[in-house]
Amino acid sequence: MSLSGNSKGSRPRLSFIIPFAGFLVLASFATIALLATLRGDRDISQLPSAMVGKPAPAMMLPSLLNDGQSVSASVSARDFAGTAFLVNVFASWCAPCRAEAPALALLSETIPIFGIAYKDRPEDTRRFLTEYGNPFTAIGIDRDGDAGMKWGVYGVPETFLVDADGTILLRHAGPIDRRVLDDVLLPAIARLP
Amino acid sequence: MTRHNTMSCLFRMLKVSLMLAMLAVMTAPAAVIAVTPEEMLADPALESRARALSRQLRCLVCQNQSIDDSDAELARDLRIEVRKQLATGASDDEIMATLQATYGDYVLLNPPVSPGTYILWGSPVAILLAGLVIMLAGRRRREEGFPPAQDEAETTDTASDSRTPPADRRIAVALGSLVLAASLGLYLLLGRADLPSRPLADRGAEIAAALEQASQTTRDRTSRLQQARDQTAKTPDDVGAWLQLAMAAAAADDNPTEIMALEQADRLTNGDPSIRALRAEAMARAADGQVTIPARQLIADILAVNPEEPRAQYLSGLAAYQDEDYAAAVSIWRRLQSLSPPDAPWMTLLAENIADAARSGGMDPDNFAAEPAGPDADAVANAASMSAEEREAMIDGMVEGLAARLAEAPADPEGWRRLIRAYQVMDRVIDTQAAMIGLADAIPDDISAQLSALEHMVLAQLEADFAAESKRLLARVEDLDPQLPQGLYIRGHFAKQQGDSARARALWETLYDRLPADAPIAPQLRQAIDAL
Prior knowledge:
The complex is a heterodimer. Chain A is an alpha/beta fold.
């Protein structure tokens, strides 16, 4: 082609290069996300929580006393007003809850933990606590999962960090493993005022 | 909350056409059964609103099903929650709003238009507009920028250009088709357009059938087990009947019966190696896959009679693997591999195990044939050439080896458990006691390990021989759960042993108070307290 023809030819070329480049950018984002998911770096089961930034539900629950024997009075997240605390939704029938028992024991040394025994029979909860230890400051019995629904729980275990004003700062769905403990929970607790 | 804009209208139209397509796909007539009977609302109008809402809500566990489709526990809870709120007179929008507030936008199957989803909803429009602009611009340029005269001049320049499109256009078409083909390929690879919506309500019969089948299977297993049991009672000398019983028991997960039946078969056949190997395998299965010392003894016996018995070889490799003697495990399993027919059912598992053992032992997976076998493995493999005494000595050696290893590295609860079982079989009471204390020390936070060691001490009357250890274990029991009934009893017993009647009395009184009045041991405990 002649030099004069070249300048004319470059204009239609640009008109399809722009959309194609746009498409390439979109496609590479999609590919990166897809590959991360397939490799397991990106966990699509971790849903964004709507509860972060909202006040902790103050539903009253029958309390499983810490002597592990009797059921008495009631307990709610409001009992913790004035201090930051963790809420751990757990159940004796949930295998990952066993796995996170050591992590909770460790956390219980730095911050009070309010346990919500989700859809569990009190006698099973007690057995679970004798077997795997009791890191909880107080335990509420959520027999039919109503409290779980108020907290937006969609599977146990789930852990929430609530500040002294009763606002939910953080939510973690799934067991607390070493990585979650070191990279998510402990730093968040350290950032508390 | 209502979103009446063009996009959602478009979306709805798309859904209607999809629904029509699905109706064509679904051939089976939909049975009208409630989602599940206890969930259903009495008022048909409310119920149909509940169903309509359920179809718009995502099951957060299954994520790509609506709660109307899903039989997950959470979906059921949400369906009930929707109905509860409907019953209190809440409007559809209010219900969606409360659920959205707790579970987030994600609970809505139709993503709402919000700053977070502007790109999602806007990009199709933007891309469409961009395309239109480019097309129009291109046309105008052709009309203005390329006057016909010049166009003709160009075509006369190169004759070939008049017939073939310009290179630019050809590249564009090629790239466009490439993109289309790639997206189609990716979609066919990952997408499932063929899956219709399957509301749970329509699957009542299907779910009931699956449950029925599961319980039928259990019933079948139990009845087969019973039949096999009756058969062995009728013909106790028939090896086949015992083997049938063992198979039925294995299917019903009844380990003790399986082992008992195999013992009988073993006895009737005077130790047939393959039956004995089944027995060893059942023993390992009963011990959560651990090749226990009694099982190892059996394996050594089998290999003495038939050094090529595949199951025994496999188990002896597994035993070496569990002792972390990976070189031996690899060499035993490699030998089994070379002796087995290439289409033997265990070959795949075997290859995986060999690779795993090689990796765990830090061996080069292609080169490990050269690795020397460990002494244990050699011993087991050579058991064929041994006399009964020699074999017994070898088993003793294995037990001593385990004990020595645990003395050096005591943080191995599984090892201690194996040692305890071995000593129990060998009737070595004092060694059993020491091993139980070893286990209790290895898992100091496990109250039941502390208690079983102490109980064994009481039953074997070894309190005086293990005074220091018992003190340590008792302190742990007290720390772990000061109120546990067994703990109170044992602590009282040891206090009494040491002549501290006051403390024993206090502990047992506490226990007595905590016992229900009709507890069978209450009167005995009372007597014991009074005797103090």
